[in-house]
């Protein structure tokens, strides 16, 4: 995810927000059949739920995101939530009109139960004793949160990348709850290419001696491995075009090569910086768990006996699917495969491939067309219910 | 709305399921959705036009009509509209067949190549005709098929289609206004509009 904290917090922002947590003492049934609990989920809400509870929108975040989708935590906070340009008063997802919930995922490390949480049975961190939760399990946990908030119907579930995969799973698992879904730069299952990048990232973490089979919480953390994993991720979020425009072959603070293995190129410096920043906020085990869940996710296999059309057969939601031309992680053809299956299932679906040079990351960057499309899709869906 | 689209809209019954191929910015689909309570879907290849449609609240897919029509189950729509696009289609036979598989009826409109202005240009100037309806030069026109109203009737017979309605129109003011042409339609009409379906009799034998 990029740093796009160029927005002035005084103008048109949802303002000061608070991270909340919902705890559930009873166990949830995982897709593996195992019962797991207790769990807690971090979330944030903005706007006001109307009297007939018909204006709730659930936003789902990408791999390393969190529930902080918009606004600031306090007056001194300089960095807004990760989708500040999209979520706020009169913005694409309008906090004046809708009640917006952004939920974190179990398995993560941003306030929900994950491998770094304390296992009540041992009083130590779960580490790799944490169960391998699937995307469907993450959604099961989110459904508990929505019920806890007293919401029966979601006007829309919205997500990009891994968030889009959660939104897909939501629409299939809970067809009566989800009235519409906005799927951005996402896929119904990972390609070999996506799995390959994830596996290299995981290997980087597990090859770090500090990883210690996942038991590092009271020791030195596998930061070197996690930083490399993040660097690999960043390459997949960009594109040849965006890297050429952003860095080219420009050198970092020098005019000639150093003729050693120090940083020469700007692109190297950028990746190092991203890696270094990432390890301050993310848990290596969570990275392993979430990428594995993403690789396992296969909507057709899990919910449609290997047929996407069958997976969508009970779905009632209408869809807006958006892909980006330069996204090579989840290329347009993967969105089109979903759209094709939706058409065959007789679903109401709109699809647009937006021209953008910024690769997979494009859904995190402001563009007027992108914002207007989402704004009006929500407006029309809200009017039609 | 364009005059030819007004005619097409008038042919569509209320509460129908309608697919608009090459729907542009969705003018007719917007009308049908809001005035005739139609359940509409559009297909358009141009990204910016698709965006405009979605912003209007229309369900529109970005894609190539020749491919997109293949995904729908049979008889998914009451009407499939192919307005002013047939002349740009590489394989009209295949497309019309696909359309009448997924739609119970189809409405097809096209610029009439035997309009008198076109005939006279070819006859007296000896040049590839350029008209209001077909404004491009031979080297940059997207229109790769020349169709006349008479030719379309013959085409329908060949495909064993039933022509339920046909109208020739003559338009003015950038097609905003127009008139229905009754006499000498193949000479005086600038556009032909046809409502077609598969021949019921032949369907029975399939």
Would you give an account of this structure?
The complex is a heterodimer of chains A (385) and B (206). With 385 residues, chain A is an alpha/beta fold. Chain A has a domain at 20-190 and 299-384: Alpha/Beta hydrolase fold, catalytic domain (Rossmann fold). Chain A is built from 11 helices and 12 strands. The radius of gyration of chain A is 20 Å and the shape is globular. Chain B is α/β, with parallel strands linked by helices and 206 residues long. Chain B has one domain: Vaccinia Virus protein VP39 (Rossmann fold), CATH 3.40.50. Helices cover 35% and strands 27% of the residues of chain B. The longest helix of chain B has 11 residues, at 92-102. The mean pLDDT of chain B is 93. The interface between A and B is medium-sized, with 25 and 22 residues.
What is the gyration radius of chain B calculated from CA atoms?
Answer: 17 Å
**CATH top level label of the domain at 20-190 and 299-384 in chain A:** Alpha Beta
What is the CATH fold-level name of the domain at 20-190 and 299-384 in chain A? Rossmann fold
User: Remind me, CATH topology of chain B?
Assistant: Rossmann fold
Q: What ranges of chain B have pLDDT less than 50 throughout 5 or more consecutive residues?
A: none
* Rg for CA atoms of chain A: 20 Å
Give me the strand/helix succession of chain B. Answer: HEHEHEHEHEHHEEHEH
Largest interface comes to: A-B, 25 and 22 residues
The largest pleated sheet of chain A is described as: 8 strands, mixed
CATH homologous superfamily label of chain B: Vaccinia Virus protein VP39
CATH architecture of the domain at 20-190 and 299-384 in chain A: 3-Layer(aba) Sandwich
Output the helix-strand order of chain A.
EEEEEEEEHEHEHHHHHHHEHEH
- Mean pLDDT across every amino acid position of chain B: 93
Strand content of chain B: 25-35%
Distinct helical segment count of chain B = 9
Going by helix content, strand content and strand pairing, the class of chain B is alpha/beta
**End-to-end CA span of chain B:** 40 Å
| Spatial order of the strands forming the largest sheet of chain A | 1-4-8-5-9-10-11-12
Uncertain regions spanning at least 5 consecutive residues of chain A: 1-7
> What's the count of strands of chain B?
8
